[in-house]
Amino acid sequence: MATVAFKLSLLVVLLNYTCLCYGSSPRLQIGYYKGKCPNNTDVEKIIKNSIRAQFRRNFAVVPQLLRLQFHDCAVRGCDASIFLDGDTTEKKAPPNLTVKGFDIIDKAKSAVEEHCPGVVSCADILIMAAREAVVLGGGRYFNVMTGRRDGLSSILSEAANLLPPAGISVDDSIALFANLGINVQDMVTLIGSHTVGFAHCSTFKDRLFNFKNTGKADPTMNHVLLNSLKHMCPKNSTKDFIVNLDRNTRSVISVDNSFFKEIQQKKGVLGIDQEIDLDIRTSGMVQKLASNNTFFNEQFAVALVKLGAVNILLEPLGEIRKSCRSIN
Ligand code: HEM
Prior knowledge:
Elements: H1 2-17, E1 29-30, H2 43-57, H3 61-73, H4 102-115, H5 122-136, E2 145-146, H6 156-162, H7 170-179, H8 184-191, E3 198-200, H9 205-209, H10 223-232, E4 242-244, H11 258-264, H12 271-278, H13 280-291, H14 293-307
Antiparallel strand pairs: 1-2, 3-4
Helix pairs in contact: 1-7, 2-4, 2-5, 3-5, 8-13, 8-14, 11-13, 13-14
The structure holds protoporphyrin IX containing FE.
């Protein structure tokens, strides 16, 4: 029942977007801002320096920016709608309550505005910042396209309906990504973002104590992992602790293929993380990514660029916000 409701709400919201899709990717360009700022300011370099400075103080910049890109692009496309403040904006939707990094983009935006006011969209700043995150995490540098504009609305219920829960089925996940124009291979690759960052116990506790209402643990979970997660997430604790998504302790802050190796050992933390290794439609790609880090790096860049092109707004739609938190 919940699955049907989820699919229906997905369809309704996506149908509402079709009107925004006509300005498609041809006008996104590599180096769109070249020559558009006073004194030939290099926008990409300003963003790179800002993100690097923030990373030196806090490694969590890497996972925070990657998750931000997904949560922005999956709802209304990559239009910075996730940044708008308000009581009923996307930020207030349950899946976004644990999203962090809004301040990272505020700082990058201020740095850009200082040298090139009113020209660079928050939507593009997020895409360039997420690319820097990949590089800082040890992943491969790649070109990103720019020229997006910022959206004028942000609706709590859309984010609540569209952002996937940790226990989403492979079926529903394939449907969700297909509606974004992202195929199964790219979906698997993108879930590989869980090679960095954390999950709250509440997002996977059912797998430890009451999997599918059986009163038992998920039988597919590696026993060593099960015991350690039970220890870190006690059944009756009122505190919602966090654990690393990548269970390889030597790779928790690295953007690499170790997540895929871990899930092949049944050490996926979230339900969907484990399911992509168990499902025949996705396990082949998991195997390819797990066995070759160079392939992972290449595919990860390709998939992030595709995610960054979802339902973008191009001139004359949208605006260039002065502050990422409010429309002008
Ligand atoms: C079916 C797809 C996905 C599901 C169900 C999912 C679900 C989740 C959940 C439940 C968390 C833990 C949040 C918390 O407890 O604080 C999480 C974390 C994270 N997700 Fe996903 N996710 C999916 C796809 C993606 C994609 C496509 C990306 C990036 C492109 C991504 C990047 C991240 C990152 C980096 C974190 C760690 C965040 C941090 O430490 O601040 N996820 N995800």
